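User: Run a structure prediction on this.
Assistant: Running it now.
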Amino acid sequence: MAERIEYTPPPNEDLDPSAHEELERLLQILHRQGVLRFANDVVGSEEDLARTLINALNRESSLNAIQNLSSLFLALSSIPPGRFYKTVFALRDAAAAVEAGIRSDREDDAAPGLIGTYHLLKDEALWKSIAPLLDGLKVFHDAMDRDVERPISDLKNKPSNFQ
């Protein structure tokens, strides 16, 4: 008969008792906060959850929201970060200037009158600052008049048969 081997494995140094204690503590916290119950409910109701998500995403309003967000992301992705930064902070500064102008009671805010209007028409600095705004309004107007069947088709200039 073979001799019995007396062997005691060395202790596992990867998981000392404190790791087991931390794991037990984590489980207790997850249980008290209801995370484990929620995870069990999600796993147990996989068909119901999937059906609910599909029904929620299959509504016209949800599809519109998804398409609108994708259009926004596509537009934002086409703007270089430096230009976007300048635009956003220029809008912030312009809004602050408008708000400051609204809140102030300046004496020189009277209507310019006929002679003042004539001087405004000849003000080159004013026209150099207004001209890009007018050009932007024209482009905006033309874009709003254009009919778009599918946003992605318009962006990529390719027809789409997706319904």
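The chain has a mean pLDDT of 82.
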